[in-house]
Amino acid sequence: EVKAIVYAVCHPDGVVAIAVTDRNYPKTAVFRGLTKILEEFTTRPPAGWHNMDRDSSVFSLDSWTEKFKNPAEIDNLYAIQVR
């Protein structure tokens, strides 16, 4: 039985966003959220991100962690479907 699913979205600049969810989490919300994270990161990346070898305190995922707890907050289409 599948207990978790790993999703990955790669930006053309070589940055990858990854999410691990349970099998019931809406796929569209995962992909929309990961895409938004990549857009946010690549439009204002931390200086020298190509050479980073540890976590950056400049770009925080804390707000995204909270958003992922509620798929409707990430994906407007999903929000409409669950009304």
UniProtKB/TrEMBL annotation:
The organism that produces this protein has a lineage beginning with: Eukaryota, Metamonada, Carpediemonas-like organisms, Kipferlia
Task: Give the matching PROSITE patterns.
Answer: LONGIN
- What Gene3D superfamilies does the record point to? Longin domain (3.30.450.50)
- Organism for this UniProt entry: Kipferlia bialata
Q: Which key words tag this protein in UniProt?
A: Membrane
Q: Looking at the UniProt record for this protein, which Gene Ontology cellular component terms does it annotate, in alphabetical order?
A: membrane
Residue ranges of the Longin domain? 1-44
- Specify the protein name: Longin domain-containing protein
Q: Which InterPro entries match?
A: Longin-like_dom_sf, Longin_dom
SUPFAM superfamilies assigned to the protein according to its UniProt record, in alphabetical order: SNARE-like
Record's subcellular location: Membrane
| Entry's family note | Belongs to the synaptobrevin family.
Establish whether keyword Repressor is in the entry.
no
